[in-house]
Amino acid sequence: MSRVPKNRRQHLLARLLADNAVTSQSQLVELLIAEGVDATQATISRDLEELGALKVRVPGVDHPVYAIAELPTAQQTPIEHLRRVLGEWVVEISSSANLVVVRTPPGSAHVVASAIDRSRPAGVVGTVAGDDTVLVVADEATGGAALASLLGRLAGRKDVRSSPPPAPPEEEVEK
Prior knowledge:
By secondary structure, the chain is an alpha+beta fold. It has two domains: 6-68, Arc Repressor Mutant, subunit A, CATH 1.10.10; 79-162, Gyrase A, domain 2 (2-Layer Sandwich), CATH 3.30.1360. It has seven helices and seven strands. The protein has a five-stranded mixed beta sheet, covered by helices on one side.
């Protein structure tokens, strides 16, 4: 039995909830054990909260079961969710022009990009996630430095780096 990274455990939890009528956290612990994953009931409780799992009544089942509601794409998530995700997953933030580069641990960029996309902070045009890097495109009015600063404050980071403005072309320097 092994401990797995949080993002993998939560992915497995979501799959288990989709495939099984789970009525208790202790049942989830047992299902995880059957998958070779070690997790405490307290950890499962936190994971269920972060995943937005709810207990719902399902026809043919005597007790309410856990389910993760699909979040409509038009629905905006609270900024506190973004603050929690950024604080937990962001390693480094830097900017240049209207771009912000957010570094995460390997395999975690999609979590951060999804949180940014779903909370829709002002000034964000969109995100592109790789394995450990999220490219956030800022609108022209906001710019990369200001957006990087906002994301840094939400993440609780003081070490946000901005590239200096570009040097003027040589012909302008000579005048």
